[in-house]
Amino acid sequence: MKNNILKINHISKKYHTIDGEITAIKDMNIEVNKGEFIALVGTSGCGKSTLLNIIAGLDSPTSGNITFTEKNPKIGYMFQSDCLFPWLTIYENCLIGLKIQKKNTLENQEYILNLLKKYNLYEFKDKYPKCLSGGMKQRVALIRTLALKPDILLLDEPFNALDYQSRLAVSNDVYNIIKKENQTAIIVTHDLGEAVSMAEKIYVLSKRPCTVKKVYEINLETRKDPISNRKDTKFIEYYDQIWKDLDINV
Amino acid sequence: MSNEQKLFLKRIKYNKIIIRFIQILIILCFAFTWQFLSDKNIINSFVFSSPKKILETISLLYTNYDLISHILTTLYETIIAFALGISLGFIVAIILYEFKTLAKIVDPFLTMINSLPKVALGPIIIIWVGANMNSIIVMSILINLIISVMTIYNGFLNTDSYKIKLLKSLKANKLQILTKVVIPESYSTIISSLKINISMSLIGVIMGEFLVSKKGIGYLIIYGTQIFNLNIVMSGIIILIIISFILYEIVDKLEKKLLNEK
Given 3-state DSSP classes, what are the helix, strand and coil percentages for chain A, each rounded to the nearest 5? Predict the structure, then answer.
């Protein structure tokens, strides 16, 4: 039985500029099940971020609709920049969402402290973000997002600001945390390796106007963490296939 | 510590000493040349004064003309204008930031007011506010306000858009976005606008004192001009340079302290 938590029905998005009208998204359909890790891949500037903004409620579609099973779904949003506030300590940074939503209860504080402990950041809780490496900052950003116990997690190219080595390590970390906390996640990325190694389902998006071109269920021989998944025999098959779908002409 | 490191630190220290030494040398050379030229009557010391005469005049002003209270008056006016200018500037910047259309509407007017030589408003201010210290303060605020508004407002506009997006995704309201991100992010801009503002305030106060005053360094300079005593004028200018330097240094130290705390 599928446990559907989000359904995107035929949404389109048009932008208006002085120079004219731009169709960013055209008739897009996506279904997300609970606990699923979904990747949206597409060339840059194809409207992936717009889609996430619409899911997050920061933007509204021109037509079509989005339905959540949950009445008031909580959405966690992570960006490529960690967006940590340099004037707040790590712990205060994690608290920001709770403070804004006036949920700064002892119980929730406890929850954050536990997350920090679990993911080896507890000893840094009173330090400022500048003392942390890029990967650690991204982990803090994830904990800040998890603090609100979101129903669905949106990751907008979350590892873009990192160098290649950290990128592999951090995506591994983040993936493990997301799985351990049993989160539903949608990641937007242009990095095929990242998508294939992390996601269970990949939506390949076309160039502008953005629409779903193909959907892949990723069935690897053995599914472990992203770094090991990259060594899977099927990894390269999916990689090649999606590469062809993207139809990138340089 | 390795020898190379020691050498490196030594070189930095040496460089600092050299710079300070040359700075002092320049001042001394300037003073001595000035003194020498006036002693030899190459320049007319009645019109150009001389360092020695300036020192004598300052000590005379100190004993007979209550120099300290003149300095305190100018300082008082400057600090009041500074505090009011910064607070008003901060409030106006927030209003402009929150109401983008308003900001667009008033933009050309701000530019106009900014380029208007405020001293031209002097006579009107005196008539409207009265021939007293308030006029001086109003004058000074007119000069420092627009700069503060523009600096702080631009600081607000440069807030990282992702941080705002993050707060929006957390369902923050406008006030929360303002107090949790926009203002803290502009903290360093606001602090550095203090430095510009203090200089502007002093300029405004002196201009105000030229127009209407019974006390203050500006008053001394104008008084000196009227009785054609250039020694008083020069002394006033020297004191003014020292005051502005000290004020600037204080704000600069304050800025460094406030920025390091964060």
Answer: 40, 25, 35
Q: Please, what CATH class does the domain formed by B51-261 belong to?
A: mainly alpha
Domain membership of residue A36 as a residue range: 4-79+87-246
Do A181 and A207 form a contact (C-beta atoms < 8 A)?
Answer: no
Residues B215-235 have pLDDT tens digits of 999 999 999 999 999 999 999
pLDDT value at A164 more than 50 = yes
Q: Do A83 and B171 touch (CB under 8 A)?
A: no
The answer for B171, left when phi > 0, alpha when psi is -120 to 50, beta otherwise, is left
Contact B170 A87 (CB under 8 A): no
Q: Report domain extents, chain B.
A: 1-43, 51-261
Residue type, B67: L
- Give the count of domains, chain A: 1
Does B184 contact A at CB distance below 8 Å? yes
pLDDT in tens, A84-136: 998 899 999 999 988 888 888 888 899 899 888 888 888 898 988 888 888 88
How many CB atoms neighbour CB B213 within 10 A?
A: 25
CB contact under 8 A, B160 and A148: no
